[in-house]
Amino acid sequence: MTYQTDVTIPDPAQGRELYRAHARSWLAANLPEHMRSDSLAYRAPTLEECTLWERAMHRAGLAGMTWPTEYGGFGLTLREHLAVNKEIGALMMPESVGSVGKELAGPIIMAVGTEAQKAEFLPRILRLEDYWCQGFSEPDAGSDLARLRTKAELEGETWRINGQKIWTSGAMKATYCLLLARTGTVADKHKGLVMFAVPMNSPGITVRPIKSIDGKESFAEVFFNNVEVADSLRLGAPDEGWSAAIRVLSIERATNRMYRPWRFEAELRSLLRACKSDAVLARRLDDSDVQRRVGEIVGQIDGLKGLIEASVEHLESGAPIGARGSLSKFYWSECHQAFAGFAYDLLAQVGPQSSPLARRAKAHFTTGYLFARAETIYAGVSEVQLDIIAQRILNLAKDK
C-alpha cells in the first residue's frame, strides 16, 4: 500500500480554508476504498494497514497539527486542527489505532514531562512507532479515580508497582501504558497519585483480553505483579498524578476527535443513501415518525458542531476548558447512542434479498450499535458528567 509522498503542506498564513482544502484533496486521493466503512469494497483493515495510513496522514500534515515542530508536530492552532477534523469526519475511515498516544499520553507528556521525556516519546507517538494504552480504570475505580488501589512504592531510583487495571483499550498491542498509581492509601483519595510511562514488556505485566459485546477483543485486564519502573519514567511530580489525570480527561472530553459531529453527519448520509437504494427501506423513509427522527438527528448534529466550534473559540482565547469538556462528552455520547439505535431499528428488515448497499449499511450500523452501548460509559459515565455540569456550569447546590 503506497500513499502520495510528494506532499506540499500549505502555509496556514495563506488561509485556513486552503489548509482544509489540502486535507480534503489529499484524503480523497489517498484513502483506500476498502478502508471506507460505507463502501461495498470495505473490509476490516489490519493493524499494519491502519499504521501505514496514519503515518501517511502525519507526513501530509494531517496529524499532530498543534504539536510543537521540535517534537514532530506542525506548530499550528486548534483552528487548523478543527479544519482538518471536519474533513476527516466527512469520510467514514477507521478510528485511529494510535489515539491513546496522540490524544492522551502526548498532551500529558507535553504538560508535565521532562525535556528528555518529550524528546524521546513525542516524535515516536506521531510516527506511530509506539502504541500506548491508558491504565486508569480499575474493577472498583472507574469514573471515580480517587478510589484506585494500584500501588507504587519507591525503592531507591526504582518504583515497584502492584495492582490491576481493567477496560484497558489496546493493551494487547501497546508499547507503553500511561499508568496512574497510588503512593499512599485509598483514604488519601486524590492525594498521592503518580503517573508513569510503563513499558508493556516489563517483567510482571500480564494482559488478559476481554471479549466485548461486538465479539472483538479490544479491551483487556492488565495485572502488575512487582513490576519495576525506573523513576525516569515517572511523568510529573509524585503527587501530581491527580491533576495530570484531570487534565487528560478534560482534553479527552473536549478537544479529541473533534470530527465526531461531521462523522455523525457522514453516517446519517450513508444511512439515508443505503435506504434509498432499497425499495422496502425507501418506503420507510416516507414514514412521518422516521422523518421526524431524522430531523431531530440533524438538529443534534448542528448542536454538537456548535459546541465544538465554541470550545475552540474558548480555548483559543486562552481560557481553560474546565467543565465544558463534560458538556461535549455527555451530549455527543447520548445523541450518538440514540442515533445508533435508530439506525439499527431502521435496518432491521435488511436481508439477503436487500440491496448490496443496504446490507453493507446493516453490517456497519450493527457494529456501531453494539459499540455505542459503551459511549455513555467510557471517558466518564453520563451520570458523572451531569453532576459536573450541574455543579460547575449551572452552579447548582449539592444534595445534602
TrEMBL record:
<dbReference type="InterPro" id="IPR013786">
    <property type="entry name" value="AcylCoA_DH/ox_N"/>
</dbReference>
<dbReference type="InterPro" id="IPR037069">
    <property type="entry name" value="AcylCoA_DH/ox_N_sf"/>
</dbReference>
<keyword id="KW-0560">Oxidoreductase</keyword>
<keyword id="KW-0274">FAD</keyword>
<protein>
    <submittedName>
        <fullName>Acyl-CoA dehydrogenase</fullName>
    </submittedName>
</protein>
<dbReference type="InterPro" id="IPR052161">
    <property type="entry name" value="Mycobact_Acyl-CoA_DH"/>
</dbReference>
<dbReference type="InterPro" id="IPR046373">
    <property type="entry name" value="Acyl-CoA_Oxase/DH_mid-dom_sf"/>
</dbReference>
<dbReference type="InterPro" id="IPR006091">
    <property type="entry name" value="Acyl-CoA_Oxase/DH_mid-dom"/>
</dbReference>
<feature type="domain" description="Acyl-CoA oxidase/dehydrogenase middle">
    <location>
        <begin position="133"/>
        <end position="227"/>
    </location>
</feature>
<feature type="domain" description="Acyl-CoA dehydrogenase/oxidase N-terminal">
    <location>
        <begin position="17"/>
        <end position="127"/>
    </location>
</feature>
<dbReference type="InterPro" id="IPR009075">
    <property type="entry name" value="AcylCo_DH/oxidase_C"/>
</dbReference>
<dbReference type="Pfam" id="PF02770">
    <property type="entry name" value="Acyl-CoA_dh_M"/>
</dbReference>
<dbReference type="InterPro" id="IPR036250">
    <property type="entry name" value="AcylCo_DH-like_C"/>
</dbReference>
<dbReference type="Pfam" id="PF02771">
    <property type="entry name" value="Acyl-CoA_dh_N"/>
</dbReference>
<dbReference type="GO" id="GO:0050660">
    <property type="term" value="F:flavin adenine dinucleotide binding"/>
</dbReference>
<dbReference type="GO" id="GO:0016627">
    <property type="term" value="F:oxidoreductase activity, acting on the CH-CH group of donors"/>
</dbReference>
<dbReference type="GO" id="GO:0005886">
    <property type="term" value="C:plasma membrane"/>
</dbReference>
<dbReference type="Pfam" id="PF00441">
    <property type="entry name" value="Acyl-CoA_dh_1"/>
</dbReference>
<dbReference type="InterPro" id="IPR009100">
    <property type="entry name" value="AcylCoA_DH/oxidase_NM_dom_sf"/>
</dbReference>
<comment type="similarity">
    <text>Belongs to the acyl-CoA dehydrogenase family.</text>
</comment>
<keyword id="KW-0285">Flavoprotein</keyword>
<feature type="domain" description="Acyl-CoA dehydrogenase/oxidase C-terminal">
    <location>
        <begin position="239"/>
        <end position="394"/>
    </location>
</feature>
